[in-house]
Amino acid sequence: MTSDKSLENLMLIIWTIALLATGGSLYYSEVMGFVPCELCWVQRIFMYPLIVIYGVALWKKNIQIALPGLFLSGIGFLVSTYHYLLQKLPLLRETGDTCGLIPCHTQYVNYLGFITIPFQAGIAFLSIFVLHLLILNLVKR
Q1: Which one of 40, 77, 84, 113 is least enclosed by Cβ atoms within 10 Å?
Q2: Tens digit of each residue's pLDDT (9 = 90 or more) over 37-58
Q3: pTM for this structure?
Q4: DSSP 28-59
Q5: How far apart are CA 104 and CA 98, in angstroms?
Q6: What pLDDT, on the 0 to 100 scale, is given for residue 1?
């Protein structure tokens, strides 16, 4: 049987991931001066509400409140994956030019040759999604 404390800890981890991802995106744009492309804005639309959703779920100690977060993180992961592929696949790179003022294939950072901003967002979305599924599985037991 899973304790309520372990479920709370998992929700706290999810909330922390969302907070760090949001802080990271704001750091890149507001401190480093990187202008977000349109797909970056879409990812922000899916990430920023997760702080409130999981914060309220944590405060109320009710994971059911956070169900929209599961869908937002899943869709956000798909957008991040597409954005990352635009950056890394030459075949898709041409379509990235039509993204808006800032081309979506722009790579402001490229740590270790593969870690870009959409990659970081995708890892955050995927982590939130998987942890939420884990919580739901634990609650079912």
Answers
A1: 113
A2: 999 999 999 999 999 999 999 9
A3: 0.91
A4: IIIIS-PPP-HHHHHHHHHHHHHHHHHHHHHH
A5: 8
A6: 40
| Euclidean distance between CA atoms 78 and 58, whole angstroms | 25
| Digit-coded pLDDT (tens) for 5-26 | 888 999 999 999 999 999 999 9
- The answer to whether 8 and 61 are in contact (CB under 8 A) is yes
Provide the H-helix boundaries in the chain: 4-26, 38-60, 67-88, 90-93, 117-140
Burial of 140 (0-12, 13-18, 19+ CB in 10 A): exposed
Task: Look at residue 104 and give its three-state secondary structure.
Answer: coil
Block residue for tokens 């992961």: 77
**C-alpha–C-alpha distance, residues 24 and 77, integer Å:** 16
> Torsion over CA of 122, 128, 132 and 135, rounded to 10 degrees?
130
Q: Report d(CA 83, CA 118) in Å as an integer.
A: 6
As a whole number of angstroms, the distance between CA 3 and CA 119 comes to 33
DSSP 114: T
Determine the Cα–Cα distance for residues 48 and 118; give it in Å rounded to an integer.
15
